[in-house]
Amino acid sequence: MRPRDHALAHQLEAALNKFHKTKRPLPGIATEKNRRAFAEQLLESIHRVRFVSVLRTRGISVARTDPNNVLFDPLSAAILNMRQDNIEEAFWLVFIFVHFGKHLHAGWRYAREVYGRLGGPGRWDWANTSADTAGFRAWLEAHKVELRREGIPRGFGNHRKYESLDGYSANGTGAVVESYVAWVDPPRNHRELIDQAYNGANGDPGMAFDSLYESMGAIARFGRTARFDYLTMLGKLGLAPIAPNSAYLKGATGPVKGAGLLFGMNESPATLDQWLGELDTELVVGMQVLEDALCNWQKSPSLFKPFRG
Predict the structure, then answer these.
(1) Is 305 left (phi over 0), alpha (psi -120 to 50) or beta?
(2) pLDDT for residue 6
(3) How far are the Cα atoms of 8, 52, 177 from residue 46, in angstroms, in the given order?
C-alpha cells in the first residue's frame, strides 16, 4: 500500500466497522484479514476511478489519436477530441474503448486496427460509420481474418472476451456497431441523446443514468457490464451529467458474489443493491467504486491481489 493511502485505508476500515456494528452486519469482513483486503480493493478502485479525472488534466500526445501508431489509446483520444470540441467523436471513442477493451497482451490492437481500417485510407470514425453501417459491416467481414491473424497477440479485453469480429453474424461486432448507431439514431447526435435523458429525468443524474442504461438494452451484446462501463465513463469524462445510484447487480456475476459474501446472505440482486446503497452512505465512495471493489475482492477475500482488465 502506498504511504499516502494509509490514512484513507484506516478511514474506510473505520466506516466499515461502524456500519457493521450500527446498521447491518458484514460477516464477510468480520476477520481483520478480510476487512483489510476489502479496504485495499476499495482503495484500488478509487484510484482507477480517479485516474480518468487525472488523465483529463494531463498533456496527451496527439499520437494517442492516430490508429496507425502503436500508441493509439481510445480513451486518451476521446479526451483530446473533447478538448478540440469534437464531442461526437469523443462519444464514439468511448464506445470503441468499451466494446473492444484492452487485451492483456495485444493492448488496443483490435480497436486501433478497426478504427484505422488496417492502415487503409480513411477511418471508421463516427461520421463515416454512422453514415454507412452497411459499408462498415462489409469491410469488417472482408477483413476479419486479417484482423485475427496468427503470430501476434490478439483479442478483446477481459470484459469483452467472448465477442467476435464477424461482420454479418447476429452477435458479431458488425451487429453491435449497427445497433449502437441505431440507438443514437442519427440525425440525432450523442449530445441530444444525453440531453433528452437528463431533461426527462428532471436533471437527476441517477435517474438519467438509469434511463440511458435501460435504453441501451437495444444494443446487441451490450449487457449489464458494457452498459455500466460505457455510461460511467461518460460521467467520469464529463461527457454526460450522470452517475449510477446503484451497482446494477441484476445480471452481474462477480459483484453479486462479492456482495453476497460481504453481507453473508444469498439475497436477490435487488436487495443487495439496496444494502450497498445503505453502505455507501457510510463509505461515500460511489457505486462504481463499490461494484468494482466487490468484483475483485471476491476473487481473493482474505488477501489483497491487484486485478487488471
Answers:
(1) beta
(2) 85
(3) 10, 11, 31
C-alpha cell at 280: 455507501
Kindly provide the b/e burial profile for residues 193-214, where b requires at least 16 CB atoms within 10 angstroms of the residue's own CB.
bbeebbeebeebbebbbbbbbe
How far are the Cα atoms of 40, 133, 247, 289 from residue 37, in angstroms, in the given order?
5, 46, 20, 15
Identity at 183, one-letter amino acid code: W
> How far is it, in rounded angstroms, from Cα 68 to Cα 306?
32
Domain spans in the chain, listed from the N-terminal domain onward: 22-55+246-270+277-297, 63-237
Q: Which residues of 125-159 are buried (b: 16+ CB within 10 A; e: fewer)?
A: bbeebbeebeebbebbbebbeeeeeeeeebbbbeb
C-alpha cell at 107: 493492448
Give the residue carrying C-alpha cell 437527476.
204
> HSE-up of 99 (CA within 13 Å, CB side)?
27
> How do residues 11-70 score in pLDDT, each as one tens digit?
999 999 999 999 999 999 999 999 999 999 999 999 999 999 999 999 999 999 999 999
Average pLDDT score, the chain: 95
192 - beta bridge partners?
Answer: none
User: Is residue 83 classed exposed, middle or buried when 0-12, 13-18 and 19+ CB atoms within 10 A define those classes?
Assistant: exposed
Q: How far from 231 is each of 94, 101, 216, 236, 243, CA to CA, in Å?
A: 9, 15, 10, 9, 8
Q: Which phi and psi (to 5°) does residue 307 adopt? A: -120, 140
Provide the pLDDT for residue 241. 98
- Predicted TM-score (pTM) of this structure: 0.95
Residue from 174, 101, 168, 240 nearest 182 by CA: 174
- The grid coordinates listed for 88 are 461526437
pLDDT at 209 over 60: yes
Q: Looking at residue 88, what is its pLDDT?
A: 98
Q: At 164, give phi and psi (nearest 5°).
A: -130, 165
